[in-house]
């Protein structure tokens, strides 16, 4: 996983797919409409969404096998909990059509990060993650974007 500021994107030499993802992110504003956006067909696409943050008890950790997630918040803030999927118990087995596997959260011993406008988190296939968490004790509205990049398109990607 990588957590950084959007302005530091050029520090990561992941190639053309990375650059396309961040060019798309740079085009967004808090007024961008919710929905799915094709960047490069099914190889690179984005989903803009709004929701209210909650507690870890209302969600499961998830991971993907075929895509790397690059996520940022357009408005609001959300906390992520992350863990290596190999350390978790599977709650819902891998669904290839949705490219998702869900895991039970046994404790809060994972890595936590708050993502706000101007920051991003990149999640590899081995990074199980739970987003949409409150950053304090109050649920808040968030508008965010998830850019999905086929893992094989990133030029320097660790072996899974």
Radius of gyration (Å): 15 Å
CATH fold title: Jelly Rolls
CATH architecture: Sandwich
What is the number of E strands?
12
Mean pLDDT: 94
Compact description:
This protein is mainly beta and 160 residues long. The protein has one helix at 16-26; strands spanning 2-5, 35-40, 44-52, 61-63, 67-75, 78-84, 90-95, 100-103, 111-115, 119-123, 127-133, 141-150. The chain has a six-stranded antiparallel β-sheet. It has a three-stranded antiparallel β-sheet with strand order 4-8-7, with no helix packed on it. Strands 9-6-11 form a three-stranded antiparallel β-sheet, with no helix packed on it.
Salient structural properties:
160 residues, mainly beta, Jelly Rolls, six-stranded antiparallel beta sheet, three-stranded antiparallel beta sheet
